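Our collaborator T.R. sent over the components below with a one-line note: 'Predict the complex.' Nothing else. No constraints on interfaces, no templates requested, no preferences about which chain binds where. So this is a plain run: every listed entity goes in together, and whatever single assembly comes back becomes the starting point for the next discussion.
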Amino acid sequence: MNINDIFTKKRPINDLQDLAIFYELSKPHLLRLIAAIICGAALAGINGAIAWLVKPALDYFFIHKTKVLLILLPLGIIILFLFRGGFTYLTNYLMGSIGAKIVRSLRKEIYDKLLLLPISYYTRTSSGSVVSRLLNDLGILHSIIAHTIKDFFVEGATVIVLAIVAISRQWELALLSFIVIPLMGYSIGRLGKIMKSTSLKTRKLISQVTNILNESLICMKIIKAFNMEERMSKKHENALAEHYRNTMREVRIDEFSRFMTEILGGIGVAIILLYGSYLVMSDDMTVSSFFSFIAAILMIYTPIRRLSKVYNNFQQGRAVIERIKEIFSEENERLGGIEKQLKGHIVFENVSFKYPGTSEYAIKELNFEIKQGEIIAIVGISGAGKSTIVDILDGFWSPTEGNILIDGININDLSLKSVRHNIGMVSQDLVLFNDTIRANILCGKLDASDHEIIAAAKAAFAHEFIIELPEGYDTIIGERGMKLSGGQKQRLTIARAILKNPSILILDEATSSLDSDSEQKVQMALEKLMTARTTIIIAHRLSTIKKASRIIVMNRGEIEQIGSHDEIFLSSQTYRELYSLQFKNDNMQ
Ligand code: ADP
Ligand code: MG
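Returned assembly:
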């Protein structure tokens, strides 16, 4: 069973079912797990042996006064402790490696799952919450597998072995001292329930902290420009304070459950002393048996205390599992469909689209056709729905109603891979990776040669500025291209599209950050790029759409007019307004 199935399999919600998830996750490492359990059992056996040996040792020493034991016993003790140390090392090593292996494969699977999720997931999820699951939550899971599950086996076995020693020494006394165990179980169970919900809250709160950190790192310039340092610091501090309070709640639950175990343990020991000394005095038990018994009982309390934490930690683990389940149960972007080299004939049939969670249509009943090789422009004020049209065309969203056909095939029947392979998008949203210029242009075509890369950069008028950079094409451009100017970034994204050589080209305000000099150059580059392919241009500047054969005027998500410049200039009020606004701007430059 792969990890995705382990988390998405329908199961009734209870402790045992989550235990099954832990088991299924460790299944690929079953051999290691068995080896760890064997080492753990040996460890428990040695602990039992130490308690058991107290009686013969005392008997031979004080009753039979055997002298050889003076040498043998210390030697035996050293050997026993040597084995105990060795088995402890092995058990911890094995369980630690199982934890690390499981967490590594979980990280891989979650990351791969993230790559498959649709854009809609990312518009409603904060990146901090995702990062926090991968880093903080999985860190906790590692410690739970490495320590808690190990404790469960080792301490559990130790308790059983020591209980057997105690029973074999004096079963009545043993049963008497076990009276407290159901009481311990009850208090641990009650507290464990509270632990899970508290832990789930802690996980959410640390997500919040991560989110603030994440956002601040991305928006540091804005924070400084708007003097928001103090406000952000306060926001971060508040999130930290809330996380602290909740963490302390977990500590209190944990320690209270330890406190209860201690008290009940103390009561157990008191009962034993009382009844045990009575048994010894009435000659029903030898002194050496009594000490062996006491050794076993005293040794049993440490593992019982640890076991009492196991349940709480397991509840914390369940909280983590719940959060990982959430990611795996998200629906993927659709896979499969027709693989095809597209030519670029596009038809919108009554296409409407509403963003999830909104009540207004972002675009409404769009009907138009773009012929293969045609250049079409979309204009409209911001918020009119222009970017939504091209995002739907690129398969980021599916139309709520209506159909989109490319080359006569419904876009829903085409594979997203084919759609995106054939569309080259230059937009302000598609930013750059923090990598070299070469790697950023390579996104367009991963197997391109250096020669092709340089040709694309030249065509985008980017080559000149690239070779002036300290390391040319190997210059690392900073996060989201921070080390480049707006115009340079746009020329890089254009070079990327040129290299991709798609049959459908989409330019979403691709030249908005350029100065008029470079705009002219890029305009030339784009004109070259536009020939022989279907092109959709979204532009504020009307100068950039002169080449378009037809213009779609968008107004509040609806098409107001479609036609050539001359036609719509007469009939569309919106277009005239945009035009006169633009005319003024262009005069000012
Ligand atoms: P344009 O590109 O014409 O400026 P958009 O297509 O980006 O406009 O946006 C159209 C409308 O859809 C706007 O009202 C905008 O607020 C809304 N919108 C855009 N993206 C989202 C989103 N991810 N979730 C909800 N609403 C959105
Ligand atoms: Mg837009």
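Summary for T.R.: The first helix runs from residue 3 to 8.
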